[in-house]
Amino acid sequence: MATLEDFRSEVERLLDRAEGHFVLQENGRLREAIDNRHGDWLAIVGGLPIQGLAAEFVDLLARADRALSLGEVRELEKVIRKRLPYFPPRK
Q1: Where does 1-69 have alpha helices with state H?
Q2: What are the tens digits of pLDDT across the range 20-40?
Q3: C-alpha gyration radius of the chain
Q4: Structure confidence at residue 1 (pLDDT)
Q5: Is the Cβ–Cβ distance between 37 and 57 less than 8 Å?
């Protein structure tokens, strides 16, 4: 069974990919999609180069939801929020 540290390592790997391959605005959209992962996150990143990575984050966090406590999942979300920029939602 995967542990919090296993998931944290996967999150860090995905964050490294985001920071190394995408421009700041795309990472902002990625953050927005992750924040909306229980809703229509695909509407935020659909058709963009960041879509595949967003899908990986959503899948990873869905697996974490099933394997970890709510508090542990919140820890993963904090790691993500710390490294990805925030842009106000589009109007």
Answers
A1: 4-21, 24-35, 42-45, 51-67
A2: 887 778 888 899 999 999 999
A3: 12
A4: 83
A5: yes
